[in-house]
Amino acid sequence: MPPITTLLFDCDNTLVLSETLAFEACAELANEILESQGISDRYTGHALFTEFVGQNFRGMMSSLQKKYSLDLPPSTFDKYVTREEDQVIGKIKESLQPCVGADAEVARLVASGRFEMAVVSSSAGRRVEASMDKVGMDKYFPRNRIFSAATSLEKPTSKPDPAIYLHACKVMGKQPGECVAVEDSKNGTLSAVRAGIYTVGYVGSYEPEQQDEMKRVLKEAGADPIMVDWSEFGACLERIEKAA
């Protein structure tokens, strides 16, 4: 097996605590769409998060279209996608925080000089870039090391599709077997695992009472090992390297 050379990090609720902010904006737009279609159901940000965590807004809206048999012309759909990006970026610029310990661990990894690193996200590239800028991680992840399933691919998609991980590997000139991903969601984990990438599960962004359940979910999706705190990443990586 090849040595591990590359680390691929999910963004939302893995490096930065953005999911709550994002799903608040998503819920506002989802409810606007449902109302415009004469559907009485309404979503809170938490309800959307529970049902669609790990998907981007485009994937979420596609799922809602199927669920409610919605009729949204492509031009209207794209306008909602752009509005969602703008609203989430506004919230990010106001109040985004990094996940506890993430910055220190990424800084340690950079200082080691052992790995190439990138961010691989379902979220739109503009949103990921705004997130990295807000928390100061742009110094670790330049624009050419941010990969978005929503905007980096010729055909936009969303995790659990492995396409964005395969694209990142191709652009970086890496084989999946020499990469390790870090993911916090079932969809993200499935995306990385289906691409043939070793995957560390991260549950530190969940409430304490949710963590045991999410450990189970991520393990079933193929994540191994699983960490609660970023201080555990070094040991997780060592375990993977020994197994590989």
TrEMBL record:
Domain of life: Eukaryota
Hydrolase recorded as keyword: yes
A molecular function (GO) term: phosphatase activity
Classification via Gene3D superfamilies: HAD superfamily/HAD-like (3.40.50.1000), Putative phosphatase, domain 2 (1.10.150.240)
Keywords from the UniProt entry: Carbohydrate metabolism, Hydrolase, Magnesium, Metal-binding
Cofactor(s) listed in the protein's UniProt record: Mg(2+)
Pfam families for this protein: Hydrolase
InterPro entries: Beta-PGM-like, HAD-like_sf, HAD-SF_hydro_IA, HAD_sf, PGP-like_dom2
PANTHER family attached to this UniProt entry: 6-PHOSPHOGLUCONATE PHOSPHATASE, HEXITOL PHOSPHATASE B
Protein name: Haloacid dehalogenase-like hydrolase
Species in which this protein is naturally found: Mycena sanguinolenta
